[in-house]
Design goal:
Layout lengths: L7 H9 L7 H21 L11 H36 L6 H34 L9 H25 L9 H26 L1
Amino acid sequence: MTFREQPIHQFLADLAAKRPTPGGGAVAGLCGALSSALAQMVVSYSVGKKNLAAHQPLLENAAHRLERARSIFLSLAEEDAEAYALVNELSRLPDTDPRKARELPAAAQAAVAVPMSVAAAALDTLRLMRSLCGTSNPHLRSDLAIAAVLTEATARAARWNVLINLSSPVPGLDAAQLRSQVDRMTDDARRLCMDVERACV
C-alpha cells in the first residue's frame, strides 16, 4: 500500500515500529506534502474574493503549483523509502555477493538524489509561499506562516538525509559539492521562511 492510500494512523504505526522504513526520509516528504496542502487551503480561501481580484491569475497559478507540489512530495516520500530499503538490503549482503557490487553504488546514489530533490522542491514551494504574502486572504495568514515553517522543516530534514547518506563514500558523487549545495538550499529556505513569517505578523 502506498502512502497515498494508507490511513494516517497506519503510517504512524509503521513509522513508530522497529523497522528501517518508513523513516526520516519519508517523514520529510510527507511534511512537504502537508505544508503544500495547507498553503493550498490558503489559496482556496483566496480565489474568487472580490478584494483580491487583482491577484486572481497568481492565485489560480499557485493553486495548480501547490497541487503539483503535494503530489511531488508524496512521490518523493515513496521513493525515499524504496531507496533506503534497497540500500539497507544490499548493505547486509556479504561482500562476495555479486549483486552487492553491481547494485549498491546506484542505490546509494539514489538515496542521496531523493532528499536532494526534496530540498529543492521545498525551496521552490517556499518561493511560491512568499508570493502569496499580501496577495492571499489575510485571515489565513497564520496558516500561510505555518505552511512556510513546515516547508523549511522539510528542507532541513532533507539536508539531514543527504548528510547521513553521504557519511560513507558514494561512488560517482562529489560529497563536498553536494553538502555545500544542500547547505545553500537550507540557508535559502530559512531566509524565505523568515520572509513569510515577517509578512504574516
